[in-house]
Amino acid sequence: MSKIIVMTSGKGGVGKTTSSAAFATGLALRGFKTVVIDFDVGLRNLDLVMGCERRVVFDFINVINGEAKLNQALIKDKRIENLYILPTSQTRDKDALTREGVEKVLNELSKEFDYILCDSPAGIERGALMSLYFADHAIIVTNPEVSSVRDSDRILGVLNSRSRRAEQGLEPVTQQLLLTRYDPERVEKGEMLRVDDVLEILAIPLLGVIPESQAVLRASNVGMPVILDEASNAGLAYSDAVGRFLGEDIEHRFVTPQKKGLFSRLLRRSA
Amino acid sequence: MSIFNFFRAAPRASAVQAKERLQIVMAHERAGRSGPDYLPMLQQELLAVIAKYVNIDENKVEVKLDRGGDCSTLEVNIELPAREQAKAAAATKPGDKPAGNDDAATKRPAGGAVGNAGGKKRI
């Protein structure tokens, strides 16, 4: 039985797509057959972050409308075994996502895949609602910043009231926090909310803390999920988060400022 | 940095303010989310009943629900017009009151429960 995960946040620009790409890649690296679906109809970007933008022929909406077969739209990752991408349409709008259509595609995918990761668009409109409706697990991507935290709380409310599990009175969608763009040095200076502050406010378990890192932009520049950059703190933090998601007990790293030695100061190596 | 800054109390860290503001606004929003949606109806019907007997200004009515841990309170605040003005208003058109009746009006203090709607003042 496959599991459906939604990567969601309410607010835009907090790192949903970056996290979806990294997380899906991490699951595939651990041997799980994984597909990551872009639900941001009209503003497709997962293909760019995954580096498969030139291989998109058919998309999610084509499959929903019966214009293409699922196998024609699925793109197999060239680097990682077991990893597939289902891109979305760049020309349609979110109304193309019907509940029946999405359900049909998810049902078909669940026969083949261990994990189906839904990359939600920002907002709480149709696209976001469709991406979370069928979810078993939700990963809430949040920045340590007031508007992001508030929007995350809002999306938690939506998950608890408007997901399939909520509507049918099933066991609730599990919810975990992925705190991204965390800057321990600014936290030390009192300029940024602490992990504990955000946890206290949102009151959901912590899946991982991804430090602010230049590696994220470098990775998206070249279309590589940042988790593959094993020299970067962000990549390692994503890897840890995937491990925790799978039930491993892994201590949180990169939550306190790193002591810079003379050598690293001279080299000014970025994380 | 001036030497005087050394003696000045350190400014409150902005992250602390961020947390406090979030806690307040989100407590409010969460209450609204799980709150009953009959409040607007209740407000309208209460008003209709009271308006049968007293000439009230619809804009001076406040219905508030506070959800506490053990008990919640429903608070209804209605500002009643002063006696003379109520009479005058009754004689003329309702709602067409002269300006400046705020001073004479009876403003109910906050913190009451449902039965709060009636004023102490006899009309």
Question: What is the strand and helix layout of this fold?
Answer:
The complex is a heterodimer of chains A (271) and B (123).
Chain A: E1 3-8, H1 16-29, E2 34-38, H2 46-50, H3 60-64, H4 70-73, E3 75-76, E4 83-86, H5 99-110, E5 115-119, H6 126-133, E6 137-142, H7 146-162, H8 164-167, E7 174-182, H9 184-188, H10 195-202, E8 206-211, H11 214-222, H12 233-245, H13 262-267
Parallel strand pairs in A: 1-5, 1-6, 2-4, 2-5, 6-7, 7-8
Antiparallel strand pairs in A: 3-4
Helix pairs in contact in A: 1-12
Chain B: H1 3-7, H2 14-34, H3 39-53, E1 61-67, E2 72-78, H4 83-91
Antiparallel strand pairs in B: 1-2
What does this 3D model show about the protein?
The complex is a heterodimer of chains A (271) and B (123). With 271 residues, chain A is an alpha/beta fold. Chain A has helices at 16-29, 46-50, 60-64, 70-73, 99-110, 126-133, 146-162, 164-167, 184-188, 195-202, 214-222, 233-245, 262-267; strands at 3-8, 34-38, 75-76, 83-86, 115-119, 137-142, 174-182, 206-211. An 8-stranded mixed sheet of chain A has the order 3-4-2-5-1-6-7-8, sandwiched between helices. In chain A, a hairpin with a 6-residue loop joins strand 3 and strand 4. Chain B has 123 residues and is an alpha+beta fold. Chain B is built from 4 helices and 2 strands; from the N terminus they run H-H-H-E-E-H. The model of chain B is unreliable at 93-123 (pLDDT under 50). At the A-B interface, helix 7 of A face helix 2 of B. Chain B: It holds the Pfam family MinE. Chain B: Keywords: Cell cycle, Cell division.
